[in-house]
Amino acid sequence: MSPPLFWVDEVPRVGGEVVLSGSEGRHAVTVTRLGVGEQLMVGDGRGSVTDCVVEAIRSKDTLVARAHAYTFTDRPRPTVTVIQALPKAERSELAVDLATEAGADRIVPWQSARCVARWTGKADKGIAKWKAAASAAAKQSRRPWVPDIGDLVTTMDVRAICAEVAAGGGVVAVLHEDGAVPFGSLPLAGATEVALVVGPEGGLDDSEVADLTALGATSVVLGPEVLRTSAAAAVALGAIGVLTDRWDR
After folding, report:
1. Distance CA 127, CA 81 (A)
2. Which domain of life does the protein's organism represent (predicted)?
3. What is the average per-residue pLDDT within 64-82?
4. Is 243 helix (H, G, I), strand (E, B) or coil?
5. Which architecture, in CATH terms, is 5-72?
6. Average pLDDT taken over every residue of the chain
7. Residue 42: count of CB within 10 angstroms of its CB
């Protein structure tokens, strides 16, 4: 089993000392119960990770470790943006958690036509929760990159994002139970970027599907089952990992 990963503002180079304190230190000392001589990893969420060994426990929320191996991992290619229609409250952060564990590079919250959830007047709070969920999930899955969480967008904004991805040689996949083609038929091998559009519990509005396909998106069916909105992006990311070089490392 790989050592646990913790976030720091700046990753030390080989031989350097790192002090874990605050919430990260508390998790390392009191939850993970790391002791002197045990291994851990520290990362900055931007690709840099250092393997360390604990040298001292100073308190219930502070430890000191020494770095002995540094690595930098670039983002996998093609990069994947998940445009996620707002799920209901109990599944909102779950969608972010699963997409992060599956490898999403960017997650954009979308107030689509059929969303039951509404972030009107509280978008900052919702985005903060998504960022916290992404950070925790990336740490749990030992990811060197924490996915970017975008601002809340409207359908007009989604149109612009999808048009830009398609114009740049990317693939835009609208996940839809009545999709025109199977997910596996998408031209993913040569794609520079992939955008996954995920609807809410009530599904995508027909006008949204028509608008996005007119801009170069493809309406696709992911499989024989109808997936919950919180799971759809993660399942699609798994398929992309197999159908591209993203998992070949």
Report:
1. 16
2. Bacteria
3. 96
4. helix
5. Beta Barrel (2.40)
6. 93
7. 24
pLDDT band at residue 214, thresholds of 50, 70 and 90? Answer: very high
pLDDT of residue 178: 79
| Nearest-angstrom CA–CA distance, 65 and 58 | 11
CATH topology (fold) of 79-243: Alpha/beta knot (3.40.1280)
Query: What's the pTM?
Result: 0.93
What's the DSSP call for residue 3? P
Q: How many Å apart are CA 168 and CA 164, to the nearest integer?
A: 6
**Pick the residue with more confidence: 1 or 152?**
152
> Could you give the CA distance from residue 195 to residue 207 in angstroms, rounded to a whole number?
19
Instruction: Assign 142 a pLDDT band (cuts: 50, 70, 90).
Output: very high
Name the residue ranges covered by the structural domains of the chain. Answer: 5-72, 79-243
> Helix or strand or coil: residue 109?
strand
Q: Give phi and psi for 115, each to the nearest 5.
A: -65, 130
Structure tokens at 122: 């509280």
113 contacts 70 by C-beta, under 8 angstroms: no
The answer to whether 150 and 82 are in contact (CB under 8 A) is no
